[in-house]
Amino acid sequence: MSTIIYPSPIFGPVHSRRLGISLGINLMPADGKICTFDCIYCECGFNKDHRTKSPHPTRENVAKALENKLKEMQAQGQYPDVLTFAGNGEPTSHPHFPEIIDDTIRLRNQYCPDAKISVLSNSTFIHRPAIHSALAKVDNNILKLDTVNAEYIKRVDRPTQPSYDVSRIIADIKSFNGQAIIQTMFMKGKAADGTDIDNTGEAFVSPWLEAVKEIAPREVMIYTIDRETPDHNLRKATPEELDAIRDRVRALGIPCTASY
User: What pTM does this model have?
Assistant: First the structure.
């Protein structure tokens, strides 16, 4: 089974379908995965298959590694379009995430002031005031909302927190008052238990659109599978399906991109 476990705390730069030349910041250990979701489509694999034996990188190590990489890129005349918090799990779960955001803003301003700071989050900690405040400071606060169907979330995103409630997540995203970007994975195929996980049909898209309308985000990013997944029964949504959903989001007056 092919999965990606990213270096830590810095990786790349890589070319992102949605963000451009992206320098990755991975706040998880380099030898495994720590996430509050266990998505069947995660390119890093299932949580149980990549148990880490190492601690999170410290705030000081993250700042030092980021500064060294930005100095190296600057010397080469190369500048990132974006500094992206992603990697082997949920970045906001790092115990010093708010302070690391402050460090990153300072270093961005010093070495690559035109770069944006993006955080890819599954939204599970945005109810915490310190996390909410930190995400409000970044340029691209990208929050996952694959569906509003609780059973689908249980089967596909597989939150590790029994208290996960998509209604609360929607309210928490809404509390950013438009300063958020919704990111949604559309795909087809079957889960390991044989159940259909196609969320491109009207039964899923229409309620999701209602939630998007209620949240009124700055932007929506929809995408489909790009790399090998730990569950091999999954299939990409078609460009035509993604374009149709994208156009319905745009009809709400909300910018939307589709990545195939």
Answer: 0.95
